[in-house]
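[audit] Reproducing an earlier prediction to check determinism. Same input, same settings, fresh worker. If the tokens differ from the archived copy the diff job will pick it up downstream; this log only records the rerun itself.
[audit] input (341 residues):
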Amino acid sequence: MVRLLFLTVLFVVTSLSASQGREIVDMTGRRVTVPDTVRRVYSGSPPATYLLYAIDPRLLAGINFNVKPEERRLLRPEFSRLPVAGAGIGQGRNINLEALLALKPDVVVMWAWKDGGDGNQLAERLQKSGIPTVFVDLDRLENYPAVFTFLGELVGRRERARRLANHARGTLRSVAAATAGIPERERVAVYYAEGIDGLATERETSVHAELIRLAGARNVHRGAALDHMGMEKVSLEQVLLYNPQVIVAQERIFFDSVAHDRRWQDIRAVRDGKVWLIPRGPFNWFDRPPSFMRLLGLKWLTNRLYPKRYPIDIVRETRAFYRLFLGVELGDRDLREILQP
């Protein structure tokens, strides 16, 4: 219902005088008055910050955490120099309200995170300081085309946002078409290994493991997500019972050790050499944070799971994606480091 409201009412609701701004409907159905022209934006979570970066990094008033040295060369330089005011949810230090107010954003963008949760408390505090807050629905990757469109309207970058939304929409459609009709018994069984010991994971409905489902595979850790934070601990005995065909690994430490760890040798994925390290740089392609990089991660994972159904040139795809979304040109060294197993 909320999405229907968003799609039909989308944006301008009421014309107000120039001094009053314009009233919009955000992606949770809230009516919010924002400035006619938005020049400075802050986001309370890294995924939304990255979305704004992709649209136009010059709009960002600040970021959620310091950029790591190894990430800087894969980002536009002005992004790394932005002041840090923390995050309300997700990765990043706790939000510093005083630092945020000092940045004087025209509007703050928050991840709705289901019913708002802590985000709503922050919105109330910002409202008292005269800063409008809008919520976006980032709970599913399928929502990203709509989120790009919404943010493009908010910040007056419609054409740029349209290109990004079209790319996202095209990715989701191409993967869905390639994996449609795979019988349940033929869907690859995947275990998502998190943590340096590989013994934390996500349930099949978790936002953190969404790519497994979208890529037409079967998450061996079934059931509904317990919460948004995830990283549920499991035992090695449980993973042995799951006996996955593929393991996607979040941490290099685990990836480098699992092939030589005798305790994991009876698991089919390890025995068959199908433990895959998730690419990252500047952000993870799969999760943590669950950003737009997952659009490229979805192509990567689908291609690895079903190369005949989804034959792509991942090197070419990676170059094009980084150019479009991140505004950087990748060299051969960059590609080797990002895509190396």
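[audit] rerun output stored. Observation attached for the diff report: The CA atoms of residues 58 and 245 lie 44 Å apart.
[audit] end
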